[in-house]
Automatic annotation (TrEMBL):
This is OsmC family peroxiredoxin. InterPro entries: KH_dom-like_a/b, OsmC/Ohr_fam, OsmC/Ohrsf. Pfam families: OsmC. It comes from the Bacteria.
């Protein structure tokens, strides 16, 4: 059976605060001031988190399948915003750095292509990925050009 039944329910609580209902529990979101109160993550942060989390899970899956011992994985996702031609605020890119001690060259060459979220988002937003070891040395980089060159 295809996994096309993804459902997330969202309900407004007050002003720009919303409760996102996942099957496993709820999450409160909010916009930062002056629009909201900043009492929860904003949707743009959730997008960056989803990209980074999917990349980490994809890399971990490959490492586990290859029976590779690794230390705990960590990641940082940084979103960039800018104005489009109409002056509307848009996400213009996301940079993700994964810290992956023990990552193998084979997994580093494969994991990005298996990340459902990243590959889907990359269709409209450039996402740059770097994997480092514990000392901060870059051991893999994946850069995607903007799909809409200016």
């Amino acid at each position: 059976m295809a996994q096309d039944g993804l459902v997330v329910d969202i309900a407004q609580v007050e002003d720009f605060r919303f409760t996102v209902h996942f099957a496993q529990g709820d999450l409160m979101t909010d916009e930062p001031p002056p629009t909201g109160t900043g009492s929860g993550p904003q949707p743009t942060e959730l997008l960056a988190a989803a990209v980074a989390n999917c990349l980490m899970a994809s890399l971990l899956f490959c490492l586990n399948k290859s029976h590779t011992e690794t230390g705990p994985l960590r990641a940082r996702a940084q979103g960039h915003t800018g104005r489009d031609a109409s002056g509307r605020l848009r996400i213009t890119g996301i940079d993700v750095t994964l810290i992956a001690p023990g990552a193998t060259p084979r997994c580093l060459s494969l994991f990005e292509n298996y990340c459902t979220v990243t590959q889907s988002v990359r269709a409209g937003i450039p996402i740059n990925v770097a994997v480092t070891d514990e000392q901060g040395r870059v051991i893999h980089e994946g850069r995607m050009p903007s799909p809409n060159p200016s």
